[in-house]
Each structure stands twice: as structure tokens, then as C-alpha cells.
């Protein structure tokens, strides 16, 4: 007997028929003698609608009330799946985040899971009851609902698997595994049988939304065996595992993109010690994550231009913070551009091979695509380009690195 966590994303629970399909999959696992906890997302499109309503009510809204609104989608699907399971003759109950509870920190809208109380759930699972848990939500220290950031149900599932010491955490989604790049954009993308935690972490953190970044961090930390697989077809998916389980290592394992980027340029910032801290300090306090940064050499030794990227959703807040501090920062002008995309190439092979970045720059140049910002890490190169070139850039790079499926 094994203990497993199964997670179903939005498209997998998009309507009544699909929830019945999920219930049948769960039933199969129960009938093979496993203890099962299921984590569900909201029906696809629902969370987007809830977020849009909050923004329509007020662009800069109370994050606690945002959480109250956006967490509701998952409550619906837990109840419906529990009913579907009961209809199949199984014992099942739904759990909201606050009922277990799943304890989080107090950062509403982007909360982190701190711990999960599992005693009652384990006892009930031991008696054959399927636990149906709402993803994406938990209980903050202020005793209010907190959500985990978009795509957070993956993290709920992995955290639950770690807390339950589950043998497996199966992430069921609308693609049958992790590919070399988004298969919806590049039809020649190739499915990977296995991927290392490290590479998956990089891919996720630069935009491959097939798994939320924090879910991979958590899986890596607690050594949870995560599998990504299709909820519509019965075929093997992709296993996320340790490097030593992978025999054939590729130089480049994947390419990802993120449209969720906005570029901010501060023109003529005074070039003195402490100015970067003065800019990024207040942004950090306002919980704005800054990603890529470039600072130009100052020609006159007095002022310089500073360009950086923030998440699209944080752009308004970032602008407001910077405008509020314009007096101290003394920049001449703030320019912002949301029509950018970050394209990243990932591979552990970069540690030992030169020329991978050069190939990226050459490939983009030959397509006439201008690079606006570059950043690198040990196993990743990212470039910021105009959004309209997303597909062209992905396809060209995928071919250039020899990743195309045969
Ligand atoms: P769910 O609702 O099941 O959580 P998501 O939409 O969050 O599903 O994630 C699955 C999507 O991730 C796929 O439909 C695919 O378009 C996208 N995706 C992006 N990059 C990749 C990749 N490298 N491999 C597989 N899917 C990817
Ligand atoms: N429903 C949430 C979202 O759309 C969480 C998730 O699906 O993982 O972001
Ligand atoms: Mg998702």
C-alpha cells in the first residue's frame, strides 16, 4: 500500500464531466489499495475572473480581501469532487485550507506554506476516506484566508505530500509531461522522461508554468517524487528527480518564456553610492519582486539610466512607489513598457560548456530580434525582447539548440 497525493489543475476540473473523470481516476488509485489525498484547483478561468473582479473594484486593493475572493474557486471544486467520489461509492470529504489548517505566513496574495496539520486527515485516510483538499489556499497568522500566488495548487500538493510523507505526488494537467518548451507554442517540443529538480526549478522560475516554482523548491527540499502527467490520457509522464537518476544529460534541457514581465527605466538617476539600495529598498518593502537589472555606465560620472523588470501585476505598484520617492531618488523620468517577454535557455551543461549564450544571441540576431536586457546564472541565460517576437524566438532557439522532436 502506498500513500499518494494527486493534484488536478483547472482544465482537469473545468466542468462536471471532467470532475467525474477525475473521480474515476481517484477511484482506480483507491482500488489498488492506496491511501489518497487529492488537491484540486478552481475550474479553469474561474480564478482569472475573480482576480479581474478585484481589479475592477479597485486597482490597488486590500490583499486580504483579494484572498477572500480568489480562494473561493477551489472551495467549489473540492465539494463537487467529494460528491462525485461519494457517487462512485467511495468515502470522501472536502477540506478547505483553514480547516486542516494549512498554516501560511502573512504575505497575502503570495503566502508561503509554513506547516500543515495532518493528524485528523491521516486518521481518516487510514479508514479509507479520500481527502479532497483545496489547493492555492491556507490560513495566515492573522487567522484570515491567504492564497499562495498564481499556480499555487501545485505547491499545496507538494507541501501536502511532504507533510503526509507520501510515496508520490502526481500532478495531473492538460499536457502529458514536461517538455523542452511550451508544447502549445512550439509543436516540435519534445517530452522529457525525467528532469532534475534543479532544471525544473529554473524552468519554472523563468516562466514554464507547468509547475509553480515554489512547488519545485519544496519538492527538492523534501525530496518529494513529483510526476507530471495528463489527466486525459493514460501514458507515462515526466518524473522530477535527482541528477544521478538521469543517465543522458543534455547541454540544454529547456527553453521557457514569461509574458508576465514589464520593463521600467529610470532616466538620469544620480550615480552615487547607495542609489541602488535607495531604489530597490522601497520596492522590496512594497513586495515588488525585481528580476533583471541593467545599469548603464554613466558618461559624465554624475547620472546613469537604470532599467529593470518587475511582474506585470506589480507594475502599477512599482510605479507608484518610485513616483512617491522621486524627490530622494532624483531621476529625470520614469518610462515603463509592459510589451516585453523574457525568454530563457536552461541547462546543467552550461556549467561545463562555453558558447551556449553566444548561440542564443546569434540566433536571435539572425531573426532580427533585438535584445533589451540580458541576465545569466550558472545554468540559465535570459533575454528580454519585444513581446511580439515570442513565438519566433522560441521556435528559432528550439531548433538552434537541436531540441526539435524527430
Ligand atoms: P494546470 O491548470 O493543470 O495547473 P497550467 O496551465 O498551470 O495547468 O500548466 C500547464 C501548461 O503549462 C500547459 O498547458 C503548457 O501550455 C504550459 N507549459 C509551459 N511550459 C511548459 C513545458 N516546458 N512543458 C509542459 N507544459 C508547459
Ligand atoms: N486556481 C489558482 C490559479 O489559477 C491556483 C492554481 O490553479 O494552481 O492560479
Ligand atoms: Mg498550474
Number of helices, where a helix is a run of at least 4 consecutive DSSP H or I residues: 13
| Gross morphology | globular
Rg (CA only): 22 Å
In helices, the fraction of residues equals: 25-40%
Describe this structure in words.
By secondary structure, the protein is α/β, with parallel strands linked by helices. It is built from 13 helices and 18 strands. The strands form four sheets. An eight-stranded mixed beta sheet has the order 3-6-2-1-9-11-12-10, with helices on both faces. A six-stranded antiparallel beta sheet has the order 14-15-13-16-18-17. A two-stranded antiparallel ribbon has the order 4-5. The longest helix is centred in the first third of the chain and has 16 residues, at 16-31. The protein starts with a strand and ends in a 6-residue tail after the last helix. The mean pLDDT is 94. The site of adenosine-5'-diphosphate (ADP) has 19 residues, from loops.
